[in-house]
Amino acid sequence: xxxxxxxxxxxxxxxxxxxxxxxxxxxxxxxxxxxxxxxxxxxxxxxxxxxxxxxxxxxxxxxxxxxxxxxxxxxxxxxxxxxxxxxxxxxxxxxxxxxxxxxxxxxxxxxxxxxxxxxxxxxxxxxxxxxxxxxxxxxxxxxxxxxxxxxxxxxxxxxxxxxxxxxxxxxxxxxxxxxxxxxxxxxxxxxxxxxxxxxxxxxxxxxxxxxxxxxxxxxxxxxxxxxxxxxxxxxxxxxxxxxxxxxxxxxxxxxxxxxxxxxxxxxxxxxxxxxxxxxxxxxxxxxxxxxxxxxxxxxxxxxxxxxxxxxxxxxxxxxxxxxxxxxxxx
Length: 330
What we know:
The protein is an alpha/beta fold. About 45% of the residues lie in helices and about 10% in strands. The protein has a six-stranded parallel sheet. A two-stranded antiparallel ribbon has the order 2-3. Helix 16 links the parallel strand 7 (about 295-300) and strand 8.
């Protein structure tokens, strides 16, 4: 039986009506701020006209089992919300893949000019920004798959017992809805808790203490910091997608691909963002070593426009794919 590989992006979850867009993440943070402030939660976005006041750096206390963290997560959320909302206004509109890249443009300097520019405030800002991944993890654990179902054309294409998936998502949609084997799905940027009890138990303290691995950041080359480089570089570094490290960690999965009988590759809701192209190059190089990609077919969704598909084709060729590139109907 011929096996297939599916390269899956956020558009796949969105096609299953899952609220996993940048806008959903932003609304979650805003609603959490409203709730903590005792305000009414509605369907509107939180509006922060002014830059929030400074964040107190975390205080770590105790040792081993009795240790803990004192942190003002309410204020951290407000600062993060303002930073994300500020860049959204400057860019006017952001899709999820653009949000990941635009994190490199968080306006640290504007905040520090409003606060008193000193090491204390720089440290508080660094710790708040470092927690973006933790707030993201907290949010993604609220996504409910319990009432979601398979959809076409995916259910006709996916063979859960034999196919493979390279996923940029954090949810277990492929495993839970389509029965794909856990070992055949590579969540390259990490995965949320898939046990409901563990999802509910994840507190901010636990996330910060365990330094969860979900990566939502940007290309390292885009870092631009003017003052307090030591503190703020740490904040940027916490959001960087270290593609080389992630590829190395998933070498076992790439070996599975190399030993498979895959001749067809499908992309579901994947935007071929520049930040993620090293993974596509790795996939192409894996197959080129065994069966040569000229014997393969890469299917692009007709959901994307002709212009988008032309751009995707160019990127695939640059990544070393030599086979057929055709569209399929979604």
